[in-house]
UniProtKB/TrEMBL annotation:
PANTHER family: PROTEIN TRIGALACTOSYLDIACYLGLYCEROL 3, CHLOROPLASTIC
Span of domain ABC transporter: 10-247
UniProt name for this protein: ABC transporter related
GO MF annotations, alphabetized: ATP binding; ATP hydrolysis activity
SUPFAM superfamilies assigned to the protein according to its UniProt record, in alphabetical order: P-loop containing nucleoside triphosphate hydrolases
A Pfam short name: ABC_tran
Length: 266
């Protein structure tokens, strides 16, 4: 099947994931649509990162089905999985940069793994990606220890974009940033998504991001998605956790500032 024609880029059905006697995800189902920015929200410890890590194959599942780009993970050969992996980029919560490599070398890393490019071309592509996320040429030869939190996030995003992915997974991209840097990062994600036609799967606690960047939101509670839809859908939800989260003071402040992306069509 030609995945470029499919509207659903990630399909998760009845997913069960746990550790020893703890069940974290309990028959969870979720679709991620091509070209959307999906925000996954939930209480601390509800399993958002576990969901992300299970989808990308870092955490084993106990039951259920995960299909990405029309490939069922269980049926795909190791070669096929490696091929699919080329089509996504991941930005982990703390950036997860290699401390012994420069900014440029960090961005080159996935290219070294997956592409057969000359040293010169690889370096050039890395510099282009770093420019796309707003890093200046003089930052490219710095080491991660010399970067601010916001710069670290941008480098991690550039690395996630290294292979021209179709899907980008972002785990709490704005955590640890001040409100202005967080807002700049939100704008960057939105711009890149539009210009590159990316599908974005974003785990976040940031109500401003959910309100201004995400086209759709999925709320995780008790191992399942308990609400899905626009920010307005979340506001109208009667689920106790969703109600408490989206109708709390912080949510009211977020909705006062700007019109919602989630309430607008794609
Ligand atoms: N490798 C692991 N081994 C054992 N338990 C784990 C592992 N990874 C996650 N967990 C547990 O799974 C649960 C969900 O963790 P997860 O990190 O997905 O939460 P989260 O919703 O992303 O939280 P936060 O918003 O605080 O980042 C937690 O109880 C956590 O302790």
């Amino acid at each position: 099947m030609d995945s470029s024609k499919s509207q659903t880029i990630i399909n998760v059905r009845d997913l069960v994931v746990g550790f020893e006697d703890q069940t974290v995800l309990d028959h969870l189902s979720l679709d991620v649509k091509r070209g959307e920015i999906l925000g996954v929200v939930g209480a601390s410890g509800s399993g958002k990162s576990v969901l992300l890590r299970t989808i990308i194959g870092l955490v084993p599942k106990r039951a259920g089905r995960i299909s990405i780009l029309d490939n069922d993970r269980d049926e795909a050969t190791p070669e096929k999985i490696r091929e699919i992996e080329r089509h996504w980029g991941i930005m982990f919560q703390q950036g997860a940069l290699f401390s012994s490599l420069t900014v440029r070398q960090n961005v080159e890393f996935p290219m070294r793994e997956h592409l057969n490019l000359s040293d010169r071309l690889r370096a050039e592509v890395a510099r282009t990606k770093l420019g796309m996320v707003g890093l200046s040429p003089e930052d490219t030869e710095k080491y991660p220890s010399e970067l601010s939190g916001g710069m670290t996030k941008r480098v991690a995003l550039a690395r996630a974009l290294a292979l021209d992915p179709q899907i980008v997974f972002l785990d709490e991209p704005t955590s640890g940033l001040d409100p202005i840097a967080a807002s700049d990062f939100d704008t960057l994600i939105k711009t890149l998504q539009k210009t590159l036609g990316l599908t974005v799967f974003m785990v976040t606690h940031d109500l401003d991001s959910l309100h201004t960047v995400c086209n759709r939101i999925a709320a995780l509670c008790d191992g399942k998605m308990v609400a899905e839809g626009s920010f307005d859908t979340m506001l109208a939800s009667t689920h106790p956790w969703v109600k408490a989260y989206f109708q709390g003071t912080r949510a009211r402040n977020a909705t006062l500032s700007e019109p919602s992306s989630a309430s607008r069509p794609n």
